[in-house]
Amino acid sequence: MKPDQAPSAILELVDGPKDMRFAMTARTLARVEEEGKEVNDMTAKNILKVTRYREKGEQELRKMVNELRDLEIEDKDREGLEKRWGGQV
Length: 89
Prior knowledge:
By secondary structure, the protein is an all-alpha fold. The protein has one domain. The protein is built from three helices and no strands. The longest helix has 29 residues. It is flat.
């Protein structure tokens, strides 16, 4: 019997700019800061995990947090305009 000749791939899980934990941590930070709350232990651990081996990790995380906060502000502004003008903006 011949071995399987199907193509195969080796996947390597690495932190990258689109890493899900990185994005979720940034989103959580944006929300926590927006609400004026303090970071809990789980979020603090995730911050360490996503920034530890990433070059300029803390700066990149802060950049994403600011971008997410700006998006949320834009969404809230749009919702307010839609309510005021009765439709899509």
